[in-house]
Write a structure and sequence with these properties.
two-stranded antiparallel sheet
Length: 211
């Protein structure tokens, strides 16, 4: 192979890498926009006060992590929550907590599926567990202290005790509501992802074939 051929090959490789990078950023932006919209579609959760609501806004980030890698999913979570700051009612604290919980889920799932090539169901299940564990930390140290600025701790605990009578302390709230709540949320998102992900993969990776 002569020098000219090597030069042409190098230019071609750089162009291909640039196109892949541009496509990846475009897909991340698109998934983040969809994730932001989904964050407004909330629904109540059984055995929880009215302010504890669930959404599927982590679903696009999980798809991104499994398609383009764990950091792509984390970037989707980051952009979604930065957009959320435009209409925040928590001074950014809620968005920070949401980023930590969602980021933990998609990063773990992306590492297991995209990086280590393990089964999708295992990646999604591990991600859901990771979300529940991160939820315990963020609720105890971030979200519940935030709620305490608007509502006395005793009243806050009582609002959860109305649905789960054996909740008596802040730790009880975390153990018997925050962890099960977010595990349920993570499993729901995982189930949706496992059903929809195979259909979206060709589009996100640019491998779909025209008719």
């Amino acid at each position: 192979m002569n020098n000219q051929s090597i030069s042409v090959a190098a230019v071609t490789n750089r162009q291909a890498a640039s196109l892949r990078s541009t496509r990846t950023m475009t897909m991340i932006s698109l998934l983040a926009a969809v994730s932001f919209v989904l964050s407004f579609l909330e629904f109540p959760v059984p055995l929880s006060p009215s302010f504890a609501r669930m959404d599927l806004s982590d679903f696009p980030a999980l798809v991104g992590a499994m398609t383009m890698g764990p950091w792509a999913g984390v970037l989707v979570e980051l952009v979604k929550n930065l957009l959320g700051l435009l209409s925040t009612s928590t001074g950014g604290v809620g968005e920070l907590a949401n980023f930590l919980m969602g980021g933990a889920m998609v990063y773990l799932a992306g590492m297991i599926y995209y990086k280590n090539h393990r089964p999708a169901w295992l990646a999604c299940l591990t991600g859901a567990i990771g979300m529940a564990i991160m939820a315990a930390v963020t609720n105890y140290f971030i979200l519940l202290p935030l709620f305490e600025t608007f509502m006395p701790l005793d009243a806050l605990i009582a609002s959860f005790a109305e649905f789960i009578p054996f909740i008596h302390t802040k730790l009880d709230v975390v153990l018997w509501n925050a962890i099960p709540f977010n595990l349920l949320k993570g499993l729901g998102i995982a189930l949706v992802t496992l059903v929809v992900y195979p259909k979206l993969t060709p589009v996100l990776r640019g491998t779909s074939k025209g008719r």
